Amino acid sequence: MRLVWALRSLLFVLWLTATVIPWALMALVLSLFLRGQKLYWPTMFWLKIAIWGCKVITGVKYRVHGMENLPTAAQNTSAVVLAAKHQSTWETFALPGFMPHPLAYVFKRELLMVPFFGWAMGRLDMIHIDRSKRAEAWNKVAQQGRRLAALGVWVIMFPEGTRIPRGKAGSYKNGAARLAIETGVPIVPIAHNAARCWPRKSFLLRPGVVDVVIGKPIPSVGREADELMREVQTWIEARMRELDPEAYGLA
């Protein structure tokens, strides 16, 4: 069985490689003429192709619960901060594909050096930071976050900072809560069990269904960052035990 998974995973990696190069070149050319949302949607289309290939080639499907908790199309100027569990590559690829509104990731600037993929990411209106310079990084997140919130863009952050092994909880940093308070927008927690199918730091995928749960927006006005992030963490980690009880020794 693992040999079959390995072969299908290899095909998927080849699929990603074959599709990312023309996509990235297209994004670079389009960036000469388009900005903002006009550039976002055509470039994000590759992520939909990647997740489609993941489903067809490796058998990894997904279900999304709680879409009604997001601002609707009629509220497309309503900004939020999304705070998501981070345990796989899957969620970084999948979330923009089913979100009804442009997202701006906060990500480490080293990703800009990844051939083709990073080059294209660098042309999008997102927030790339030097994590070794914490004060400078936060100032950039706050400054750019305010600007993006004023445009109605949804900023997405992974409070744990890095991919966490399945069944574990990382140290939740309060940056997403601080940004929500700074901009006066709600914070939306997101939980998922993607590592069941696509483990961290691995391209050996196994068939299955990834469940994504989107929580109700949590108001940030008048809150303290640490307290707000504890509420986000409590919600996410409670959902994780419901989504993947086996990983937490509950099954």
First-last Cα distance:
23 Å
What is the top-level CATH class? Alpha Beta
H/E topology pattern: HHEEHEHEHEHEEH
Compute the number of helices. Answer: 7
Give the domain tally: 1
Our Rg estimate from Cα atoms comes to 18 Å
> Mean pLDDT, rounded to whole units?
91
**What spatial order of strands do you see in the largest sheet?**
1-7-6-2-5-3-4
CATH architecture: 3-Layer(aba) Sandwich
Portion in strands: 5-15%
Shape: globular
Largest sheet: 7 strands, mixed
Poorly predicted regions are none
CATH topology label: Glycerol-3-phosphate (1)-acyltransferase
Determine the structural class based on helices, strands and strand pairing.
alpha/beta
Q: Please estimate the helix content.
A: 40-55%
Q: How many distinct beta strands?
A: 7
